[in-house]
What we know:
By secondary structure, the protein is mainly β. It has one domain. It is built from one helix and six strands, in the order E-E-E-H-E-E-E.
Amino acid sequence: MSKLMKAAVYIEPGRIVLEDRPMPEIGPLDALMRVTTTTICGTDIHILEGEHPVESGRIIGHEPVGVIESLALPSLATRKASAPSQGLSRPAAGQTPA
């Protein structure tokens, strides 16, 4: 049985539920983060209110804070930290990747 994680899932306008979902496998350039705090963003509010149509079952929320549990490549540990955005991490303005 695969490990499970909690996910905020859009069902229909006005309804988001917390569900157990399989924890994804990390890819060659990914990190697995244990989320300690999160929130939803303005886009998620528009989705909830039915103003931005998305399919039922979509996992929402991309504003996490957490602890890195696993790195696909140990060399990623030397990179500068940056906030994730839509699942992507980028160096802050003026920084170059390590």
